[in-house]
Amino acid sequence: MNDLLRRYGTGLTWTFIGLTFFWLVILVILPDFKLLESSFRPYLPVVDVGGPKDVYSLNNYGQIFGNEVDFSFFGLHFMLAARVKVFVLTIFYSGVVTLITFILAYPLSFYLAKVVSPKSLPTLFLLLFVPLWVSEVLRSFAWYIILTLKGPLNAALMALGIISKEIRWIDGYSPVVVTLVYTYVLFMLFPLYNAMQSLDSNQIEAADDLGAPWWRIHWRVILPHAKPGIASGAVMVFMLSAGSLLVPAIINSTTGNWFTQTIQGIMLEGQDWNAGAAFAFMLLLFCTITVSLAMRVFRVKLSDIAK
Amino acid sequence: MQNNRRLLGHLYMALFLIYLLVPLAVMSGAAFNASKLPTVIPWKGWTDQWFIALYNDNRIWTAFGNTLLVAIAVVVIAVPVGTAGAILVNSISGRVRAILYGMMVAPILVPGVVIGISTLLFWHQFSVGSGLHLSVLGQVSYIASFVTLLVLARLQSFDQGLEEAALDLGASHGQVMRRILLPHLYPALGAGAAVSFFQSIENFNVTLFTRGGADTLTVYVFSKVRSGITPTINALALLLIMVTLVLAVWYEVNRRRNARIEAIREAEGRRAEDAELVAT
A71: helix, coil or strand? Predict the structure, then answer.
């Protein structure tokens, strides 16, 4: 702090502090407090706001319960509130997306980091980046076209004789998962690549010379070294998936609702901002818990994830 | 064995690229299909009608203008704010630094839905209605984090001795900032501006809740997809992909030329050295 004053003087130092204050307090912290405060207040007509009916309660959070539906999960059957079910399934399928992106990206990042000649790397990365630069809305739209009932996927499979009748792909959660994987796989690839690239190839050769089979080299040498990359990629993909509204809304599978769609419905169609705030806060709380858990489990710091 | 595995790697890489690119090709192809629905099957013949429809669609052009305005506003606010944050956090240490750093990085991981709703509610209590100005503020709150990270990385390689020297030689604080710190940060500021610009264009979640009645390109495309899609969107998609490709190819050509020039210079340097050795 004193160092800053000495180098840039009072005026500039206060400018830095002022700008940072504007960002962190006005744009981040106070809105989040307002979100929490609003979530305890009832949804009232304008004249009643601030009146005797405007008291704090947990009613908005209670709205997640009610409307019980049948729920079966890995062979277990029980009754669950419809919105809780959507919440649980959103988290579960975000986990599935994270796992699939990891399986897809792991061999590729190893290939990019250790196999391919460094000369062709920039070109390959450019090819990988092009789809990333195309906007998310268009990438989801592309999958919507592919998966529709009369779309090219069904036509191709029928022409090949693999299926005899068109399959309704846009049903349940699988089309959402497929599209999310496509949209976010590169967010897994780049951190994994970064982590593997810093591994000394001599270690792999040493293990190989000492007779370790290829899978043991991956399990004992490469995987442990890539752990920070895995953590950061997994957190990134999981958060993006769980918080995605665009992808599930464009795919619009009526039997595959995402929790963000529930929030959107309450906010924009129901116009109940207070209940919307409560649901948004639940999502925020859940995300905070997940990130801190991931940091604990993988023993990484926030700075590792942010890379 | 080793060769087989290499081959497998190349094959996987090729398949992965196909996987990434085929959906984009399918989407672009549908832009030329005369069918009223955006699809490549059945093929009803070539047409350019969707591009003409796109050209005549005024709402798209308004949305496009809005997107650019929002993106420019985000860059103008997020770059100074994020840079100030980075300089501040870089000059302190210990626990305060860790907390401040955490607060600066965390917005990246917060779901856009949460940012959008909290921004809307916060400004609403001061009777600031929704609209694109709120979208800008909401977007800045997490896009500034990217700028901070880029600037912090660049500050690692900064030699503070230069500033000390300038101060000893009688430079004012403003001059130290303008002549020494900022020039060192220029690459990071440029990258930060580019990242902010593209993040803003991409943004959907924050904008959806804060925009009021105004459209940005992403929101407009989204509402089009939801309500009666026409291949106009595919025509737009193709144009956007083409822009991306042109930029990518331009970048690659530039990179290769620079690499070649570098190689020639190195070779010349070596030859000159050899010649000198021979002469002595």
Answer: strand
Q: CB distance from B171 to chain A under 8 Å?
A: no
Q: Name the minimum distance, in Å, from the CA of A76 to any CA of chain B.
A: 31
DSSP tag of A49: T
pLDDT digits (tens, 9 = 90+) for B27-82: 888 888 877 777 777 777 787 888 888 888 888 889 999 999 999 999 999 999 99
**pTM of the predicted protein model:** 0.87
CA-to-CA distance for B124 and B129, rounded, in angstroms?
6
Residues from chain A contacting residue B233 (CB–CB below 8 Å)? 141
Residue pLDDT, tens place only, B147-195: 999 999 999 888 888 888 888 898 888 888 888 899 999 989 998 998 8
Contact predicate A187/A233, CB 8 Å: yes
In tens, the pLDDT along B98-152 reads 899 989 988 988 999 999 999 999 998 888 888 899 999 999 999 999 999 999 9
d(C-alpha A118, C-alpha A81), whole Å: 54
- Show residues of chain B in contact with A151, CB under 8 Å: 39, 41
What residues in A contact B84, CB-CB < 8 Å? Answer: 15-20, 23
A75: closest CA of chain B, how far (Å): 32
Q: Is the peptide bond before B187 cis (omega within 30 degrees of 0)?
A: no
Single-letter amino acid, residue B208? L
Per-residue tokens: B2 = 């080793």
The dihedral over CA atoms of B42, A134, B115, B59, expressed in degrees to the nearest 10, equals: -60
User: What element of type H or E holds A73?
Assistant: strand A68-73
The one-letter code for the residue type at B100 is L
Side chain identity at B154, as an amino acid letter? Answer: R
Which residues face A71 on adjacent strands? A78
In the Cβ-directed half-sphere of B279, how many Cα atoms lie within 13 Å?
6
What region, left, alpha or beta, does residue A81 occupy, with left being phi > 0 and alpha being psi -120 to 50 degrees? beta
Asked if the C-beta of A150 comes within 8 angstroms of chain B's C-beta atoms, the answer is yes
B268: number of CA atoms within 13 Å, CB side? 6
Query: CB-CB: which of A6, A32, A138 is closest to B118?
Result: A32
B149 interfacial to chain A (CB closer than 8 Å): yes
Query: What is the structure's pLDDT at A24?
Result: 93
What is the pLDDT, as a whole number, of residue A212? 83
Cβ neighbours of B231 (radius 10 Å): 27
For chain B, the distance separating the N- and C-terminal CA atoms, rounded to the nearest angstrom, is 51
**Strand extents, DSSP E, B117-269:** none
What ipTM was estimated for this complex?
0.86
> Which stretch of DSSP H or E encloses residue A69?
strand A68-73
